[in-house]
Amino acid sequence: MIHLITGGSASGKSAYAEQLIRVETKDTGRIYLATMVKGNDSENAARIQKHRDRRESLYFQTIEQATGLKDLEIPKGSTVLLEDVPNLLANEMFSPAGNMDLAVSSVLDGLHHLMEQAGNLYIVTGEVFTEGIEVYDDMTLRYLENLGRIHQDLGKRADAVTEVVYGIPVKIKEYEK
């Protein structure tokens, strides 16, 4: 089962994904796949620590993998929470380990590889598109277009899609068992 969970910044999408996993899966074989690069940013470090603290009691094995998901091997049938697609794309586009021209295919190949291995895959992504901004620089526009392509692919493949708005889950596509 693949569940795509989206929403704006600080909308509660990560907490919602974790809640779904608590309710829908066993307490074993859970993998939290973290894609954020800590770097020298104290705000990122605080966000990473907040997520680590929240996961402590949820029986997750944490794997930090900023790029190259297509090379990641996980136990077959695991429950995976991937946090999150916008970070993963930014890492693939802009980090020294990534490749700007191959970023979309690298992200999609990695996600498809996870789909083949995981029993349940919960993918957290974000709505980073901003209404009212008329002009983006070329690099930002390329990033947004790439993220849109990835979202379209994931939306088609997902069994369920939920947008979290102000902490309220809104079902876009429902899973049929």
From TrEMBL:
GO terms for molecular function: adenosylcobinamide kinase activity; ATP binding; cobinamide phosphate guanylyltransferase activity; GTP binding. The active site is at 51 (gmp-histidine intermediate). GO terms for biological process: cobalamin biosynthetic process. The keyword Transmembrane helix does not apply. It catalyses: adenosylcob(III)inamide + ATP = adenosylcob(III)inamide phosphate + ADP + H(+); adenosylcob(III)inamide phosphate + GTP + H(+) = adenosylcob(III)inamide-GDP + diphosphate; adenosylcob(III)inamide + GTP = adenosylcob(III)inamide phosphate + GDP + H(+). Its EC number is 2.7.1.156, 2.7.7.62. Pfam families: CobU. Pathway: Cofactor biosynthesis; adenosylcobalamin biosynthesis; adenosylcobalamin from cob(II)yrinate a,c-diamide: step 6/7; Cofactor biosynthesis; adenosylcobalamin biosynthesis; adenosylcobalamin from cob(II)yrinate a,c-diamide: step 5/7. The keyword rRNA-binding does not apply. Keywords: ATP-binding, Cobalamin biosynthesis, GTP-binding, Kinase, Nucleotide-binding, Nucleotidyltransferase, Transferase. GTP binds at residues 7-14, 52-55, 64, 83. Catalyzes ATP-dependent phosphorylation of adenosylcobinamide and addition of GMP to adenosylcobinamide phosphate. Belongs to the CobU/CobP family. This is Adenosylcobinamide kinase. It comes from Eubacterium cellulosolvens (strain ATCC 43171 / JCM 9499 / 6).
